[in-house]
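Marked as duplicate of an earlier ticket. Keeping the data here for the record.
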Amino acid sequence: MNQPRQPAALRLTPPALRTALLFAASLIWLIFGGYLFAETRSVLPAILALLGLISAVIYGLALIPGGSYLETGPNGLTIGASFRKRSLAWADVEEFSVRQLGRKKKLVRYRLAPRTGEARGREELLPDTYGLEAEELAKQLNDMRRFYTAGGQPPAP
């Protein structure tokens, strides 16, 4: 019987072009809102400028290398977002699936193994699909989880 090949470790990052375009749009909101506020001294343009500032900071940080990524390997996966990282062992994750958000947006959902006293584990979302389709990313992560939790052996039929 053929042994399954060890899945290749992944290091995925969000598409830089998309992030740069969102950063540019945030700057436009900031500048436009600031201009309108200076002309009218109204609250609505100030809110627009504030939202532009907040999103420009978020997308600006995402443009810095190493700020946002998904890394996988034999021990589990590491999710990096806004220069914070969270590592999960493969055994801590029950499954990966796709979650539909709105009409077009899809993200990968993962369910953590239940803790003592819990009937079901918590469900969380990956912050991005890192340039892949959500279905493809979920499939790759499930394949890795099955491989590594089975000790490198094929899953039982």
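See parent ticket for discussion. Residues 73-149 form one domain.
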